[in-house]
Amino acid sequence: MHSPYSSIRVAVVGAGIGRAHVEGYLAAGAQVATICDLSPDKAQALAQKWNIEPHIESDFAAVLADDSIDAISLCTPNSLHAPMAIAAMHAGKHVLCEKPLALNAENAQSIADCALETGRVCMVSHVLRFRDDTLELKRRAAEIGDIYYGRTMARRQNGIPKWGGWFTQQRLSGGGPLIDTGVHILDLAWWLAGCPAPVSASGVAYAKFGPQQRHLGAGGAENLSGTFDVEDLAAGLVRFENGLSLHFEASWAINANGDERFCHLHGTNGALLWDDAPKFVGEDGTVEALTQGAGSAWRREMEHFLSCVQSGATPNPDAAQGVMMMRMLDALYLSAREGREVAV
Known about the structure:
Layout: E1 9-13, H1 18-28, E2 31-36, H2 40-49, E3 55-57, H3 60-65, E4 71-74, H4 78-90, E5 94-98, H5 105-118, E6 122-125, H6 132-139, E7 147-155, H7 170-173, H8 177-192, E8 198-206, E9 233-240, E10 245-251, E11 260-267, E12 270-274, E13 279-282, E14 287-289, H9 297-311, H10 319-338, E15 342-343
Parallel strand pairs: 1-2, 1-4, 2-3, 4-5, 5-6, 7-10
Antiparallel strand pairs: 7-11, 8-9, 8-15, 9-10, 11-12, 12-13, 13-14
Helix pairs in contact: 1-9, 4-5, 5-10
């Protein structure tokens, strides 16, 4: 079957979460022309998994210099998002950047400014927005009236990722579970609620297990002589100008009864409940279980990005939304450090 995106040549930079990007692009019918990773063996293994023969590259500068590349997926450590995205757009490439957009709001704003300056498409990868079940909840969000309160959780009981690697180093990641998994669920709640403007944030952060090398994830430790200087649990509240309050918890390590992930939004006429069994709750208490699941979320996300590349349309989420999310995260971290509610 012919794809409208078959002429678009994409480079995927980073063969970690880049695995999912490659899958999505191939399902959308685009050309994965290059896979770039510091480890050529890892890039080659990813190509072989999908039985494709892209150019294997370890030098990002070479990717930028390749005029045949139309778009780049950035699947690199957070600290590299801003310099790589800016360099890519100045080189004429459109950019799909993995969440979070940058280490902080200042760096994120520099990306958004560059997108406006160069006229390139710059989209943030928030794949939860592209699931079948979340899209159905979004379609029905107006039915629950004024959405005034939400609770979200992204809890891992034993999930510290690759201890001593870039995930656990503040200068490379920008933080721990809040900026890693929490940003997914906070963005989902914000998007379902209509992306109102944030006003203030109050947060707390703890590092009770990471410094002791406890509660490591399935990948174990990358470098046991390395650094852990981020939180392993964050929680807090964000207030918005329309009266909405979002409460969240994000953890890599906690003594609890297993992992848990949900996004529950409550309105004056009902509720949107996204969890292991998503459902719509009416004002009369009637519960309607959704039949949709994840679906082909990665394919749908890549199709949206590729469509924007073709048309020049503004993607959703664009860099401006990425900046706003980073402002919320920055405010939550500042609040946790200073022990007070802060303006966003």
